[in-house]
Design a protein that fits this description.
Number of helices: 22
Radius of gyration: 24 Å
Number of strands: 17
Strand content: 5-15%
Distance between the termini: 31 Å
Largest sheet: 9 strands, mixed
Shape: globular
Structural class: alpha+beta
Helix content: 25-40%
Length: 639
């Protein structure tokens, strides 16, 4: 999760006075990177994935499943083994082969695992992804107690509901001040608690997260959550729920942990050069909502069925540090800008590249950016689109400043730049090379929800990488749509069963002619370029639209691929096709159906601890291959 430095994090009343200084040096650090790295060429198409897991403790006797705080303990063991291996390297600079790398996440019950080194750039390497993911799960599972399991779903159904934590703690922590979450759910790394506290302090109130409840036949109307302790008066912000923060007919949450305590699947791709990274950034941004819909795995929050399938808006609200002035609720007085979005959201501006497809009208969102920073960047040789991108990121304040890292050499450090860059959590992230590193220009694809099984996570990873490779191989692919249409798509993507019920704005013709991939070339006027399509049409194609899967298949047909490799890749593609046409259920739909068919369910939207226990056990059995779930995995997968 972003930049993890060590040191003494400053509370907000001290950090806010240093925000301008951090921004100033962050821009200088970016300029040093740009000057040194802008001409870098021919980097290999390396890539990697990040999977976030939850550690669950099971009480079989009482049929209870709780989040285990031992996640942090296991992480320390995993990292100790990793560091020992690294210390055994023979020659200076030599890196031993590691099966996996392990990193902390916001929740104390969470562990993030990545491959030990980037995947190679060959298509054949894609067949190793699932095995690497299985190995990571096995490594963690081998460290568990007999009553523990590791789970990969977007949101834990009981987070913040009743007796959900092992060992139990009361919700009375100073950092979150939540009515539901104790501070003990937060990873003890100093960054995380400070982040939660500083977001609340900067905002001037607790965050207010409201997800629409799924109205079942016995759900009260209006739905007023009886578990909210409206009368608590432990902290000044406790009255906010009663004063309107908690909306009727919604599931109310009030802390950063509800968002950053969710899990995801993310993919980072290294491009050959900065221009190709800009192309990947722009083009992949347009498919984010569709891919999130296909991967939906978050239908339950705080013990209630929600009328959404994804976690994205929960996280967006959970890290929304904007003040009332920045939210437009009061006239600007102390703050600099009215900012339309949280720090977590879809991108607000395209970067453009040399492919010739970008038009200024695609950046149709009135962009809020720091004009002083923009002017400085342009005067320093940065093009207008990149300068607006960076100066837009830098309208935000740094949320966590470490006292020991204030004084830096801007020519060799990127900490101040990354401080702000890494807390702009957008659906794609443009990542410059770190100083003095062999790593090149990268793009991080962020909207995917984590899946129950390694097969599903591998399928989404492989498909995303193949789509990216097709984008680089076929320069005539053009998926630009206006930024405002991407925002609409992202909202629609949250809807319950959005794969079947929603249509999304997409480009009418994504092939502009001139390559082996062209079959529906066209150059419409901008007003005619975008139409609404179903997920099935966008992914699988139709008589009028080529589709993303056919694009990937055209790319595979254009290169030499061994039969065994193609067969494995085709199983992943077939799975994605099934998700897109609705013949294979999303995890969110599967989980909702499981709850609604449970004998203890009262059709009142409430997911009881007993139901949650059975659900978690069933998901674990599916992940281990002990329970058949063809409705979730299709016929393309066999353990």
């Amino acid at each position: 999760m972003g930049l993890l430095s060590l040191g003494t994090p400053l509370p907000w009343d001290q950090a806010r006075h240093l925000a301008r200084e951090v921004r100033k040096h962050g821009i200088e650090q970016f300029l040093h990177i740009w000057r040194n790295m802008k001409d870098r060429q021919k980097d290999r198409l390396l890539w990697g994935d990040e999977i976030e897991y939850m550690l669950i403790s099971l009480d079989h006797k009482n049929r209870r499943a709780r989040l285990s705080q031992r996640g942090h303990e296991l992480l320390n063991q995993l990292q100790a083994e990793e560091n020992e291996r690294l210390s055994q390297a023979g020659m200076p600079g030599e890196k031993p082969e590691l099966e996996a790398l392990w990193r902390p996440e916001f929740g104390r019950y969470m562990i993030e695992g990545t491959p030990g080194q980037p995947y190679k750039s060959t298509v054949a390497e894609l067949t190793n992804v699932e095995e690497n993911m299985k190995r990571r799960r096995d490594i963690v599972s081998g460290m568990l107690k007999s009553n523990e399991m590791v789970l990969s779903v977007g949101s834990y159904p009981e987070l913040g509901s009743g007796d959900f934590l092992e060992p139990p703690h009361k919700a009375n922590g100073q950092f979150s001040r939540s009515l539901f979450l104790p501070d003990e759910v937060i990873n003890p790394h100093p960054r995380f608690r400070t982040l939660a506290g500083n977001i609340r302090e900067r905002r001037g109130s607790k965050v207010a997260i409201n997800m629409p409840v799924f109205h079942d036949v016995n759900t009260p109307s209006p739905f007023i959550d009886p578990t909210i302790p409206f009368e608590r008066s432990l902290f000044p912000g406790d009255s906010e729920a009663k004063e309107g923060a908690a909306l009727a007919n919604h599931i109310y949450m009030d802390a950063m942990g509800f968002g950053m305590g969710c899990c995801c699947l993310q993919i980072t791709l290294q491009a050959p050069n900065v221009d190709q990274a800009r192309r990947l950034y722009d083009q992949l941004a347009t498919v984010g909502a569709v891919m999130m819909t296909l991967s939906a795995s978050s239908p339950i929050f705080r013990g209630y069925l929600a009328d959404v399938d994804c976690r994205w808006n929960v996280i967006a609200a959970a890290v929304d540090d904007r003040t009332p002035e920045e939210r437009g609720e009061r006239p600007l007085s102390k703050d600099r800008f009215v900012i339309p979005k949280s720090r977590y959201g879809t991108i607000d501006t395209f970067l453009g590249s040399s492919d010739g497809h970008f038009k200024p009208e695609y950046n149709d969102l009135p962009l809020v950016y720091d004009r002083e920073i923009h002017s400085h960047l342009v005067g320093s040789g940065i093009d207008d689109l990149m300068a607006k991108h960076v100066s837009h990121l830098f309208i935000r304040d740094p949320l966590v400043i470490f006292e020991e890292l204030l004084d830096q050499d801007d020519s060799v450090s990127a900490d101040h730049f990354e401080n702000i860059q890494s807390t702009n959590w957008q659906n794609v992230r443009f990542k410059p090379p770190p100083p003095n590193s062999p790593i090149g220009w990268r793009v991080e694809f962020r909207p995917l929800e984590v899946q129950v099984t390694d097969f599903e996570n591998a399928a989404f990873s492989v498909f995303t990488v193949l789509l990216a490779r097709a984008l680089l191989a076929f320069s005539d692919i053009n998926m630009y749509i206006p930024v405002t249409k991407m925002d609409i798509n992202m909202e629609r993507a949250h809807s319950r069963d959005a794969v079947l019920s929603q249509k999304f704005y997409f480009r009418r013709s994504i092939l502009s002619g001139g390559s082996r991939a062209s079959s529906d070339a066209g150059d419409e006027d901008c007003g005619d370029e975008v139409v609404e399509m179903s997920v099935g049409e966008i992914v699988n194609g139709s008589l009028e639209f080529v589709g993303l899967v056919p694009i990937v298949q055209m790319y595979l047909d254009s290169i030499e691929v061994e039969d065994s490799v193609r067969a494995k890749i085709d199983s992943y593609i077939g799975f994605i096709q099934g998700r897109a046409d609705g013949s294979i259920a999303t995890a969110a739909a599967w989980m909702r159906d499981f709850v609604r068919s449970h004998p203890a369910y009262k059709f009142d939207s409430a997911v009881s601890p007993e139901i949650n226990y059975d659900l978690v056990v069933a998901l674990d059995e599916i992940a281990q291959g002990k329970r058949a779930a063809p409705e979730l995995l299709g016929s393309h997968h066999a353990f």
